[in-house]
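Quick one - inputs below.
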Amino acid sequence: MYKIGMIGDWDSVVGFMALGFSVFEVSDADQARTVLHDLVKSEEYAVIYIVEDLAARMEDELAKYKGLPLPAITTMPGIRGSTGYGMTHIRTAVERAVGADILFKE
Amino acid sequence: MAQLKVNPTRMELKKIQGRYQTARKGHKLLKDKRDELMRQFLEVVREDKVLRERVEAALSHVYGSFSVAGAVSDPQMLKEALMCPKKDCSIDVSHKNVMSVIVPVFHVAVSENGADACNYGLAFTSGELDAAVSELSGIQEDLIRMAELEKSAQLLAEEIERTRRRVNALEYIMMPSYLETIKAIKMKLDENERGNTTRLMKVKDMMVQAQIQQRRQEDDDSEET
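Output:
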């Protein structure tokens, strides 16, 4: 059985405690890097959510774990609202695989 | 295109023809694999896009509710209320094989230690908090599914890129170079064959010439005697 982790600022992550997620409050990207590294290393987490604005500042760290089958590291909007980072990410994946953005073109 | 550096012999020709056939079969298979992966990938991404839009919309609403809950009650109280959840959410992971890419499949297991979903006493918390928490519970499944789909999309995208590189390498580098080498060896062998025939013809000519010369010599000798 794996756990679900949630990394972000306090206001964004507080609610997820109620769902039974393991919540890690961080104040900056450096701290988030350390926490993420520890969580991945522990191999106890199948899913780790990271608040978008933090994820945007630690892309290099996220790229390291892309090839691993677990954990699934996913970004989600924080309390300040969606920055569109998650969508951009999907778009980049489509562009990489297909060679052109064929899904998001309006 | 680069031609392989091999000796122009029949044996090499046969070997390279065999390799060319293998490359052609491999190319066809990989191309099929790429197309199927692409189809699966697009399916995943389409679902993920819809899900993400829904989750983002729901989350902004949930954050609003939490802000209201935080405003009407003491933040410390809010923290205390949520700190020790009754629910314990864990994930069971199984794996699915999509065209030899192993993608995870998540099954959520929520264990609730109590009859109600609320994990705090109702006396000191506001009704807004209840609403926010129940809203959040509503999108929990979507959140997990989204994580699963995004991971699958990532892994599939990588595999597609790799397969595409292989297909292109076979199509534009390996196969043309084999074809060119086969052509070059064939030409060289034909050239040798022609050289041989010409040489034989030349030798035959020389032999005939010598015979004529000899015959003439003999005729001249008999006339003299």
